[in-house]
Write a structure and sequence with these properties.
The complex is a heterodimer. Chain A is mainly alpha-helical. Helix content of chain A is 72%, strand content 0%. Chain A has one domain: Helix Hairpins. Chain A has helices at residues 6-26, 30-54, 64-95. Chain B is mostly helical. Helix content of chain B is 69%, strand content 0%. Chain B starts with 7 loop residues before the first helix and ends in an 8-residue tail after the last helix. Classes of the chains: A mainly alpha, B mainly alpha. Chains A and B meet through helix 1, helix 2 and helix 3 of A and helix 1, helix 2, helix 3, helix 4 and helix 6 of B.
């Protein structure tokens, strides 16, 4: 069985990132836009894990610095989702909508 | 699938599916801890939070909102340009490396004989969680504490956000409060 090379992981990661970016641009529902942002973060994590596995240290272990960064990314993403969803809920309470087309004025 | 589902709930569920696939790729890359973390935090906690909010807000489908042609064109075009650039850059690299072998026996020399890491490395299995924990509490001790403060700030921020909107609701139009949310 041929093992996948670094290029294939990078292309999958880029594809995932592009799907997330397309979602952010196309969709009008603010919750779905938020989910697509999460997907772009996950694509970045995939790149980091792939580099961590392919950059073996002189002793023959994976380079764990990349996986540390992924750990911190996941933690920050969790905090970000919590705060962002709280903002969305308070926005919905103020405006009764979550479509970005209808959120055109800044003054609450 | 996440992008083109009209119903946010099916969009969220296909998101769970893609995160599970991503966790499978992580485990295939010998990053067992990160894979498990991906399933627990993303597919478990974060997506449950999303679905909870979707149900709380009772989001209507986007049936009544026709897609804007401009946004659709830009949303297809810009990621497509990104992909083409990426493939163009990566394709210039003639030989792409495949995953190098892990030599666990050699790596075991760094660790104290009798410790868990040493025992597992010499027996040929990768003690992923032990190595990450070792690294986390030695080299990355300060960022870990910064992250702890960040989580505390996020918690306080969430409470402050929801509290403020409740207070504003009750002071502005307290009479019609029950029909909101």
């Amino acid at each position: 069985m041929p093992t996948p090379s670094l290029t294939e992981y990078l292309i999958i990661s880029g594809l995932l990132f592009s799907i997330g970016l397309g979602g952010v641009i196309i969709r009008r529902n603010i919750i779905v836009i938020f989910m697509c942002l999460e997907m772009m973060l996950a694509a970045a994590s995939l790149t980091l894990v792939a580099f961590s596995r392919f950059n073996v240290t002189s002793k023959g272990l994976p380079d764990y610095d990349g996986q540390m960064l992924v750990f911190f990314i996941i933690t920050v993403a969790a905090a970000e989702v919590a705060v962002g969803l709280a903002i969305i809920v308070s926005l919905y309470r103020a405006r009764q909508t979550i479509h970005t087309d209808e959120l055109t004025s800044l003054k609450g | 699938m996440v992008v083109f589902m009209r119903n946010p709930v099916s969009s969220a569920l296909s998101m769970v599916l893609s995160f599970l696939g991503l966790a499978g790729i992580f485990i295939g890359l010998n990053a067992y801890f990160v894979g498990i973390l991906q399933i627990l935090v993303y597919a478990g906690a974060i997506m449950v939070l999303f679905i909870f909010i979707i149900m709380l807000l009772d989001v209507k489908d986007e049936e009544s909102h026709p897609r804007k042609g401009l946004a659709l064109t830009a949303g297809v075009l810009i990621p497509m340009v990104l992909i083409i650039q990426l493939v163009g850059v990566i394709a210039t690299d003639e030989k792409s490396p495949s995953a190098p072998e892990l030599t666990l026996g050699v790596a075991a020399e760094d660790y104290r004989p009798g410790s868990v890491i040493h025992t597992k490395l010499t027996s040929g299995s990768l003690p992923d969680i032990h190595l990450i924990g070792n690294k986390l509490f030695t080299d990355y001790n300060f960022p870990l504490q910064v992250i702890a403060v960040l989580l505390l700030v996020a918690t306080v921020g969430c409470v402050a956000l929801s509290k403020k909107s409740v207070a504003k609701n009750s002071s502005d139009h307290g009479s019609n409060k029950p029909d909101q949310g």
